[in-house]
């Protein structure tokens, strides 16, 4: 039984040949391709019906832009992982996708093996970016940290994080993947995921972007 068996994936792209090829590669690798879509509105409807674990999403879509699709679907279901697969490596596109809730961003020049690995890691909760883009995103996290926070956990009676949750949060803020955090702390990947989910719940945050922003605002990435 392969690691990805049972993982439900949906592919959204307005180019039929590309969309079909990506869906075929994923299916042949053992993923369950539950739906495909060729435009933004169709993507939202079918994703809501099919409930994929990972959405492989192009940004340039007719009807509704990819970032709007991402924002709407992640807003309705924060557990959804979105991997953007785009021909554009423009910084503005990458940052807009991340702000909309995308977990990762891969260029279409990536190999099939890189795509399959990215989908696996995205499903596991890792932030996956084409080399060179991760630093850009971390820099944006830092810039966002200078803006007013959407929520605070410093008020009297606010939930307190455990020592281990704080330790995991600090490493997330430094840009480490869940796998790297697990290796650093000598715990399982699943345990790292559980700590992150517990922390999100306690702080009333919705995704990794907000979590990293929260941590950087409090200087946890500098420790």
TrEMBL record:
<dbReference type="InterPro" id="IPR016032">
    <property type="entry name" value="Sig_transdc_resp-reg_C-effctor"/>
</dbReference>
<dbReference type="InterPro" id="IPR000792">
    <property type="entry name" value="Tscrpt_reg_LuxR_C"/>
</dbReference>
<dbReference type="InterPro" id="IPR039420">
    <property type="entry name" value="WalR-like"/>
</dbReference>
<dbReference type="Pfam" id="PF00196">
    <property type="entry name" value="GerE"/>
</dbReference>
<protein>
    <submittedName>
        <fullName>Response regulator transcription factor</fullName>
    </submittedName>
</protein>
<keyword id="KW-0597">Phosphoprotein</keyword>
<dbReference type="InterPro" id="IPR001789">
    <property type="entry name" value="Sig_transdc_resp-reg_receiver"/>
</dbReference>
<keyword id="KW-0238">DNA-binding</keyword>
<feature type="domain" description="HTH luxR-type">
    <location>
        <begin position="154"/>
        <end position="219"/>
    </location>
</feature>
<feature type="modified residue" description="4-aspartylphosphate">
    <location>
        <position position="58"/>
    </location>
</feature>
<feature type="domain" description="Response regulatory">
    <location>
        <begin position="8"/>
        <end position="123"/>
    </location>
</feature>
<dbReference type="Pfam" id="PF00072">
    <property type="entry name" value="Response_reg"/>
</dbReference>
<dbReference type="InterPro" id="IPR058245">
    <property type="entry name" value="NreC/VraR/RcsB-like_REC"/>
</dbReference>
<dbReference type="InterPro" id="IPR011006">
    <property type="entry name" value="CheY-like_superfamily"/>
</dbReference>
